[in-house]
Amino acid sequence: MDAAEEPAADEQLRPRRSALDRFTSYVRLVEGWSKVRRYWLSRFRPAYVRRMRRLRRGQCVRCGSCCRIMFKCPSLENGSHCLVYTRRYNQCANFPIDHRDLRYLEDVCGFYFVRDVDA
Question: In which domain, by residue range, is 100 found?
């Protein structure tokens, strides 16, 4: 093996990440982006949030799953009891903003969305 074919020294020392590690990193990235997206929509696109709320059906079953997306909310107590429920943040009160938010909850959320008949 000549010098051109040998891996660089830093490649030899760096452990290879498993497929599970790469997938976990991807999921964390998507969950992080979704948190930023919900904040941005709640803060800067209230008309969109109102329109999606009209399409939302069901009710909160107080399961606490939305409070554990990416990390456990510090206001969550005893698994599903929110300490600040009556004065929670807009992005929490508006959750789920649209159907994309439900993909993280593994079918435990009491909300669902209907198609927009006006579109």
Answer: 18-113
